[in-house]
Amino acid sequence: MLDLVARARQVQARTRTLFRLTVELAQLELKRKARALGIALVLGIVALVLALYAIGFAFAAAATGIAEELPLWASLLIVSGLLVLVAAILALVAARVARTAGPPTPEQTVEESQKTAEELRRV
Fold this sequence. Notes:
By secondary structure, the chain is mostly helical.
């Protein structure tokens, strides 16, 4: 009888430890995904700001091109082209980072919990 009580306490302690570790894994996984989404958000905002600047430079280039000689508006057009290029690169990087983050669900934790539940059912 004492052996059964001791085993029940061991199972209870292991279950608590397993639950605590599962919660810790879920927290770590969610932090990692939230960080990746935060980086993607910042890069997307920077890309948007640069795109807005590029639009401003494009309008300035068009206006200057009409009013002045070629070198000034050409230089403004080159600057706006570079801004658009940088904005496009940042947007692509932001999309890639967001794609790697995936949905904000703790997939590893769910998978481990399902495996644990299967093993407990077999016993």
